User: Fold this.
Amino acid sequence: MFMAKGPAPALGIARRAIDTLTETAAGKPARRYTVGERVEASKAFRDHVYVQDAVGRAETLLTSARAHVYDVVGDLWASLVYGRQLTERQLALFTTLYPHAVGVCVEAVQLIYKAAGGAAAYQKGPLDRCLRDILTMNQHVVGTTRTYEMAGRLLLGLEPLRFLF
Assistant:
């Protein structure tokens, strides 16, 4: 059951990171630079293209990871409800559910953290917590590249490789 419920906290962490930046970006002034001999006009942090890009990319990563989780778990659930034997493909996708969802959420949180600027690193707050939590989840043994090897073996019809717990 860990594989089925493990991605949920990662999805929530990524959602929190995106929401935090989105909520603060409108009221936060952007750093001003000099252009030649003049100082840039004042603007909101959300007006920076790199902030907009990071939020757009992070949102896309999060929604794709969430859709993947729902697709894989939904397919398994339907098979189990109807009493069908799970296929090697279903088992392979289920095996990689955790590392894929968490890995994509790591990317999303890192985009947001980087876009937030120095304040994210120097001030304790939600983005600092999101980054630490998602990176900790990513360190779990189920998140290793060996998990993808396990799935690949199933997909290729080879003898299964399993964790020894």
